[in-house]
What does this fold into?
Amino acid sequence: MRLIGTLVIVALLSGCASYTTPGGAVAINDLSTPEINRLMAQEPAANFPASIAVVQIQAPGYRSLDTTGYGQGRYSVVLDRNEATERALLQLNAMEGVADIGPLNRLLLPTQLDSVEALREAAARLRADMLLLYTFDTNFQVGDRRFRPLNTVALGFLNNKKITVSTTASAVIYDVRTEFIYGLAEATSADESAANVWSNARVVDELRVGTEREALMQLTDEIEKGWSKIYAIHASSGD
It folds into this structure.
């Protein structure tokens, strides 16, 4: 009887699918030097046309259904590339005043990640003039309940409720040499669906992937708009 009871429990548990929300975003500003005087003293030093290194950073211990963040410390780095990131790189590489643009490589990164300086050093090894950081802040809401990063949601108990997934993508462009900030950009995308899609974790994750892809596309457009001002100001000044 105990064996039968155990088998019944296992069957029930296996039939109750779940989805774990991915890790969170990073407050990029918290990774920079805090001293006001030092911040105000930073100057642009990039050469034009500029070489730009790009990297996605997320909260420590970041993971999603398909991705695990690299490194430990105050943030982790997402190194996986997909069609959306490739399209974004192609669009940014076509901007006036850009010599080349590309992602940072695992081989250049330290395992301990606590500040922007670690990424600037990696970018410097690529002889990059600028460092473009971006992060995704993706939130899941079921009815009136909001699920924070790394929450496990039992999919079978969410029938007849609306699911809303929203992603805010944020970016900052640093000078590799001085940590001067050239500009910021942000974009938000959202999607919703009936709860019956939550019968399968892969289908749920496709909502996340879709909002992050759309947010990245919008973010890329915002970066492109801001870049025209960056190039007009700093390239003409000879910096």
About this structure: The first strand starts at residue 18 and ends at 20. Residues 22 and 64 are 4 Å apart (CA to CA). The longest helix spans residues 201-234. Residues 19-234 form a domain with the Double Stranded RNA Binding Domain fold (CATH 3.30.160).
